[in-house]
Amino acid sequence: MSSRHVAGATVVDGSITVPGDKSISHRALILGALIRGRSYVGNLSPAADVAATAAVLRACGGAVRPFDDGRVSLDGAGPGRSLRSPDGTLDCANSGTTMRLMAGVLSGHDLKATLDGDASLRRRPMERVAAPLRAMGAGVSTQDGCAPVRIAGTAQLRGVEHRLEVASAQVKSAILLAGLSADGPTVVHEPLPTRDHTERLLRACGADLAADGASITLRPGPLDPFGLAVPGDISSAAFFLALAAARPGWRVRCHGVGLNAGRTGILDVLIAMGAEVEVEDGPMAAEVEPQGNLTVTGAPLHGVTVDPSLVPRCVDELPAIAVVATQAEGRTEIRGAAELRHKESDRIGALVTGLRDLGATVDELPDGLVIDGPVRLRPARLDAAGDHRLAMAWTVAAALVAPDDGESVIEGADSVAVSYPGFFDDLARLLSGPR
Ligand code: S3P
């Protein structure tokens, strides 16, 4: 496990191009490997999680190949026809998206497979995806509700109507991907709308998919191959945007960032806190996903309430938001975020511990956090708990310590590779001055 020393920043003023979006990359690989014909994906995320999806697809006979210009080519034979039983256990590593989405895909093929992962992934709830897939006719078993997930799939699933208990784009996507092999319509109702990357890409491929608020209906039918340049990952950009927001006059510009409305809650929160946020809409990526340039300029911030309805739109950004909240005048309340306890770590518990070590005033709620600011953060030894987003949030906090007060140490900093292998290099470039 690597540790990293991080000093307080004197100024933040620069531009950055973050790597391709992780969520969109998973879906592009999976759909490209299923759809009959050849698809191409450019600007694929370099995340270890996405590499896990590529490896799982390949282990099942999926044709995922490097092409030119850094693009990846994908060849499929159609849903239900593209994958076969792998030789061994499928290793999803740290990636919940790989395990849940692939559970849906594999359920819709005539094969047997076992999905497993690292210690963190083995603690995460999998019945939420197993139960609807069983209702569709697949054999799916979990171990005490968790991985390993054993699948006996069939290319003749039943279309079902499923009401999700928790708002989860991963579970919704697993059901829709299985629904491609169903004999009739698949309907998913969400308690709150979540990111719709799967729906957008399916529709771009010609799927008969209707979305009405938080209800989605998919009717299986022919799909066309696609070409997609993946936009930049707003969840990676979020750490730099949060850092800039926290000090008046600091500024970060991010180019070509995905602006899917299911992902832009971080911008709403920063604006509500008082930061200056400029959004310059760019051309849609292959008419599938909105993208554009973002500039965030820091200002004196005040505390906000992050309402439960906003949580799915910024679920992965809550660690960064919690760090910024320590610099805002007054109280910030995050509620309705119990799902944070089931991410790569118990992010609520870990945030409370780390923020207190940094000198912040924090109260723990079963489903969130209450943070009173502003405080002068002090250097600390912070544990990423094997969680990439905590490693990056702690780095932002360390950069917000006054430079003369000393360095912080991030334990387990190498976990950033799960979503953003170049994070520390990009941060160093940003801190080296205006460009
Ligand atoms: C993701 C959905 C979210 C998010 C995760 C990626 C996706 O999880 O936290 O990092 O790509 O669908 P849930 O849908 O389970 O909340």
UniProtKB/TrEMBL annotation:
Question: PROSITE patterns per the record?
Answer: EPSP_SYNTHASE_1, EPSP_SYNTHASE_2
Q: Which residues form the active site?
A: D316
| Binding locations of phosphoenolpyruvate | K22, G96, R124, Q170, R347, R389
Q: Known InterPro entries for this protein?
A: Enolpyruvate_Tfrase_dom, Enolpyruvate_Tfrase_sf, EPSP_synthase, EPSP_synthase_CS, RNA3'P_cycl/enolpyr_Trfase_a/b
Mind listing the UniProt keywords for this protein, alphabetically?
Amino-acid biosynthesis, Aromatic amino acid biosynthesis, Cytoplasm, Transferase
Known EC number(s)? 2.5.1.19
Instruction: Cite the GO molecular-function annotations of the record.
Output: 3-phosphoshikimate 1-carboxyvinyltransferase activity
Asked if the record carries the keyword Protein biosynthesis, the reply is no
Protein location: Cytoplasm
Every Enolpyruvate transferase domain range: 9-427
Q: State which pathway it belongs to.
A: Metabolic intermediate biosynthesis; chorismate biosynthesis; chorismate from D-erythrose 4-phosphate and phosphoenolpyruvate: step 6/7
Specify which residues bind 3-phosphoshikimate according to the UniProt entry for this protein.
K22, S23, R27, S168, Q170, D316, K343
BP terms from Gene Ontology:
amino acid biosynthetic process; aromatic amino acid family biosynthetic process; chorismate biosynthetic process
Describe the reaction catalysed, as an equation: 3-phosphoshikimate + phosphoenolpyruvate = 5-O-(1-carboxyvinyl)-3-phosphoshikimate + phosphate
Q: Which GO terms describe its cellular component?
A: cytoplasm
Q: Which PANTHER family match?
A: AROM/DEHYDROQUINATE SYNTHASE (PTHR21090), PENTAFUNCTIONAL AROM POLYPEPTIDE (PTHR21090:SF5)
User: What role is this protein assigned?
Assistant: Catalyzes the transfer of the enolpyruvyl moiety of phosphoenolpyruvate (PEP) to the 5-hydroxyl of shikimate-3-phosphate (S3P) to produce enolpyruvyl shikimate-3-phosphate and inorganic phosphate.
Q: Its quaternary structure?
A: Monomer.
Q: Which NCBIfam families match?
A: aroA
HAMAP family hit by this protein:
EPSP_synth
Name the protein family: Belongs to the EPSP synthase family.
Instruction: Write the protein's name.
Output: 3-phosphoshikimate 1-carboxyvinyltransferase
